[in-house]
Write the structure tokens for this entry.
Amino acid sequence: MADITVADLDENSARAELAALAKALLGANAKYHGRDAPDISDADYDRLKLRNSAIEAAFPHLKRADSPSDQVGAPVQDGFGKITHAQRMMSLGNAFEDEDVADFVQGIRKYLGLGADAPLAFTAEPKIDGLSLSLRYENGRLVQAATRGDGAVGEDVLANARTIATIPDVIEGAPDLLEVRGEVYMSHADFEALNARQTERGGKVFANPRNAAAGSLRQLDAEITRARPLKFFAYAWGVVSEPLAETQMGAILRLKSLGFDTNALTACFETSARLIAHYRKIEQMRASLGYDIDGVVYKVDDLAYQARLGFRSTTPRWAIAHKFPAELAWTRLEAIDIQVGRTGALSPVARLAPVTVGGVVVSNATLHNEDYIKGLDGKGAPIREGRDIRIGDWVQVFRAGDVIPKIKDIDLEKRAAGSVAYDFPTICPECGSAAIREMGDAIRRCSGGLICPAQAVEKLKHFVSRGAFDIEGLGAKQVEMFYHDSNLTIREPADIFTLKARDATQLTKLKNRDGWGAKSADKLFDAIDERRRIGFARVLFALGLRHVGEQSAALIARHYGSWGIFLAAMDASAQKSGAAWDELLSIDGVGEVMATSLVTSFSQAAERASILRLADELTIQDEAQPGTDSPVTGKIVVFTGTLEKMTRAEAKARAEALGAKVSGSVSAKTDILIAGPGAGSKAKKAAELGVHTLDEDGWLALIAGL
Ligand code: IVH
């Protein structure tokens, strides 16, 4: 093609050559970004690009809408190529209340100057919670696919879009130029299967289907995208060489006839009341759709009206998204399971038909306790107007922040005729011991103690958790495995520290077992040995005694200073009277309930023996007592940035053990800021305030030997 100089080209051959160049260059881009081997060299690529620019300079009116010169710096080194949208991709204004919808309709009537009786129709359709994509078809062929990006410039994901089954490569009977816009999403079922596969392979687990869809579409290796089950709903369009239809509904039907998936819940209505009724219907169906939606979009049906209404800076005047209330969703309660915790508490857990609440798929929620299920609060007063919760009920789930989902309400109208009230077990489902509810306690507890496998396993899980022994390579999963192992078993904390010695006597060594090897077994034994020397506060917290949390354990440990003194104090307090008992109660933060829990644990023969077996395996280090002279006693310290030598929890515990007060924010009162890599605003503020700042090593040097 470069045989003729540009000056000698006529218009027809220039147009033809630009088309050929676009095809070659865009194809090379796509291959490059898809990590397929590009079929031309970089030098050839540059030569074609130059030729393209030269022809465009000579024939500016022939410059194509998909001109390769508008595509930034291809082939790029990494990431995706950028695509400037021929028509901006807009977002939508939001409506939250019914009145907002009525205002929207009224506003449009007013803008268009329509009288109250003039017909005005709107479409209403689900707002899919995925990511938007613009597909460009030229002469029926898919030539470009771009993410929304900032609305003006998106990313070139053509190779990836081509792997999506519901995006046709070729369409027939379409306008010569057509940009189809819509949403890429992942169904709940596919999302769960993907996460299960990812878990198995130790890959990234996605928080919700939207993240999974975005992560899957934005893969530099299109083969990864191909293996991810993405889908596409078409609901809008960008540039078109001729109108698709006269109405929104007509255009959607046209897209459907061209082979695109369109949403079956799209319907047309004439009043805001009807729109809202459709919204309510879709809201009720939300849990059973099998994919995430976060509202309903209303659009003026008449495309001539749409054109008149036009756009504000980033949103169309002719459309609005009626969002679902945040973090609330209806779904069906499929079962109630009872979980037994480390302190024996029987916790009812709702098993739900999966539903997305605030962007996260929820299939479990807490039901708190038996009274909550009955519709009573802690004092026996009615909640939910006394409505109880039954298996099979439609329940409203909510999430506040990051906490475990809860059930807010139930829909009595949807209750099945033969439903029966839930019968809370009075026997531990794990060990069969009586589950007892003491006076004044909202919680029913298994009385089995350590004979209850659920309690034992939960206690062990707590024991190895982060703030506690935090043994690398020994997490909840391994604890579960060792607990049920008949040869190399871990039934109580002390067993962890005899694991290596016991393994040595086994016929089949750990290293020869499934999922283990010499390296991983040795690593585990080393990690266990590393924890034989451990601070008193950590040990006390790790025991997982009822009411004794991390903070309380630290306070108590600091008060007594050493394990030996503490043990003697527990023995002396066994009768819950006398000087030792009074001293225990005098500790700031220790009340009668906690003190009783402590003393009881150390006086019950089995539990005491188990604790002492553990202590025998350890070297429990003393905790510095407050008042001891340390350069950090009474100082207010703040940690920020990444700590590399210890966890944040550990650093905090250590500082507190030395009598420092650890605060989360920098103020004029702060004495020392310990700033690790990545420290940001706190370090800046500290500098402004002239707060003494140390790095992690500086801090460790300061407290060394204390
Ligand atoms: S119409 C000019 N319809 O919501 C209006 N958008 O918040 C173009 N979305 O960026 C959008 N479902 O990604 C439209 N049925 C639907 C939609 C929908 C999901 C997304 C889209 C858009 C965002 C705006």
In short: The two ends are 79 Å apart (CA to CA).
